[in-house]
Amino acid sequence: MNQREPILKVRGVDVAHGHTPVLHDVTLEVGLGEIVTLIGANGAGKSTLLMSLFGLPRVARGQVVFAGQEITALPTHRIARLGLALVPEGRRIFPAMTVRENLVMGGESVNEMVLERIHGLFPVLHDRAGQRAGTLSGGEQQMLAIGRALMGRPRLLLLDEPSLGLAPLMIRRIFQALREIVVEGTTLFLVEQNANQALRLADRGYVLVNGCIRMEGSGAELLDNPEIRRAYLGGH
Amino acid sequence: MNAHILLQQLVNGVVLGSVYGLIAVGYTMVYGIIGMINFAHGEVYMIAAYLTAIFLAALTLLGIQSPPVVILMVLILTMAVTALYGWSIERIAYKPLRHSTRLAPLISAIGMSLILQNFVRIAQGARNQGIPTLLDGGVRLMENGPEQFVQITHAQILIVVTAIVSMGALWYLIQGTAMGRACRAVQQDRTMAALLGVDTDRIISVVFVLGASMAAVAGTLVTFNYGSFDFFIGFVTGIKAFTAAVLGGIGSLPGAMLGGLVLGLSESIFSGFVNTDYKDVFAFSLLVLVLIFRPSGLLGHPEVEKV
pTM for this structure? Predict the structure, then answer.
């Protein structure tokens, strides 16, 4: 199904929080230039999976390969510098820093062209460059978190529920921006509870249930699947 | 109220406050970045006093005598070696406990403080040590007679000027450089900083090195001013500087500087007008009052639990 060269390979991964197992034998792939989504209910282990790619926490079993390099045991900051960027759950911007400083934190050096592109994507980040990031609205903070992740020109952008807690209009704007990011050639791995939006955007999707991958298919296939409609799309 | 005594105590207070402030920034930065009180920080200041005497003796043996050159070289050498102490303390006593309970590094810090005190006591002797005066004299202001004047010694001027310069340098480092930005990022959200490629262990080391260097400036300056020290000076001065950090708002860099100044000034005024013997009681009563009525300090933000 996936003919493209994989940028991320997760093979047979088990992850636990302390002594509580969260993920079991998770295997998935993201191809270069693809948009892949992972949907699942609250508590299925979606965020844990994203964080464990960075070793937070470390996987107990299995292997993570990014761009041909095994990263399972690498320190978090080294993994980030390989070109894997995360827009985390809850955005986690640096509230006491200015908007510009937050963006600069995303790259090892300031690349004015990348900065301009991000300002084009989210003009509000340009208008509020000198403002404390903690004073931004939730949607603006989400834009900042995405912009910050793009500053390092990532090869793979991971997004953890970018629509969470946002008004419908803001969700549409965020997804519109994600479409533009994809057009510019960034690979996306999107974790969402908002399965409808996510599956419409994605080439392929995985469904995570209680820490296990239950289903896998193209975005359209999963959207049409009655079981998925019932469980995640509020359909009947 | 005697104007001369008041002004003299204000001068002394600013000098004392500069010293407290220099040490307090070390407490506040470490607290800001790893959420622990580094109770061994006072000993770092004490070690800087001994290093000052050692380097002064070494330079004298080498025949270097010009006071400005000696003072500058001693300051730089002491800062470098004290920074190494700060770095090692973190590596040995705190880093292995990074993922432990909150209490463990605190106990380790108290242990480290005892080890350093006793190490110096055994290696250098428990007696009071001294160095010769390098900087004497001063300026007299508002002289009205043999007993009526305000004296500012050259050593005091040196303390205040050096404190302002080093605080300015520290401020620039934290606010104006990429490394400082990384420090602030780690302080606000350590996990997120790591996710953006910041080597957080390195940044924590940097903070210990910066804090120890500032304590070294204080230790060197105070030694040049008073000339005498022993292995126990780090205790009371350390706790006073900690009080200053809490007073200003622990975790806040300008708060530590302001807290130092406020504590130094109020302690001096109290000594001059009320009672010298009770000045420590006064300073620590101030700590208790701050903890009761304004636990976040003058410039601190109320603690918000991160989700």
Answer: 0.91
